[in-house]
Write a structure and sequence with these properties.
The complex is a heterodimer of chains A (115) and B (115). With 115 residues, chain A is mainly beta. Chain A has strands at residues 3-5, 10-14, 19-21, 24-26, 32-39, 46-52, 59-61, 64-69, 74-79, 88-96, 104-105, 109-114. In chain B, the strands form two sheets. In chain B, strands 2, 4, 5, 6, 9, 10 and 11 form a seven-stranded mixed sheet that branches. The chains are: A mainly beta (115), B mainly beta (115). The A-B interface holds A 31-33, 35, 37, 42-47, 50, 52, 91, 95-97, 99-108 and B 31, 33, 42-45, 48, 50, 55-56, 89, 91, 93, 95, 98, 100-109, 111.
Chain lengths: 115, 115
Amino acid sequence: AQKVTQAQTEISVVEKEDVTLDCVYETRDTTYYLFWYKQPPSGELVFLIRRNSFDEQNEISGRYSWNFQKSTSSFNFTITASQVVDSAVYFCALSWTGGGNKLTFGTGTQLKVEL
Amino acid sequence: DAGVIQSPRHEVTEMGQEVTLRCKPISGHDYLFWYRQTMMRGLELLIYFNNNVPIDDSGMPEDRFSAKMPNASFSTLKIQPSEPRDSAVYFCASSRGAGVNNEQFFGPGTRLTVL
């Protein structure tokens, strides 16, 4: 069965701190994709990144970076120098070749960045 | 370009009433997904379509729920009769292509409250 676990329910940091959101996944498929979505207080879901199972290179986009490690089945997300605008719920999700185009989401991590 | 459009944004109804949620996917996208988000169950896929044909409706909770996609630019999710436990945010998403790597673009959601 496919499963995504985000063990951190809520994280609070002070602005400018770095913060890492954890994501652990389970799948038996060898070809799969991992995603991160952001859900700000306004409610919409915003796509952040996609990573396939054959590419373990870390990725950096501005203050955001992602660390994919197949050995630990993890796809962690780090925000450097957090800002108040980063406050949101962040979801990790998984799609796999045997699942059609379905996404399985984790339960999300609520990030609160305070001044 | 317009994103995924959902209407209404908010719906309040009484138990037993019929509710119809509407979605217009991004032009050119051939996959359409309906999700439900609740505190208890998180984000769960209800049904998805490819080229207007339902592919997987295993997430539809019960016969009170039905979804249609009469053409490439319109889909509905109907609940009849509605119950208080149906209260949730319902998201529509669309994507292009058959690959599991294709990111899904989400609409703003419809917040449904059943009294």
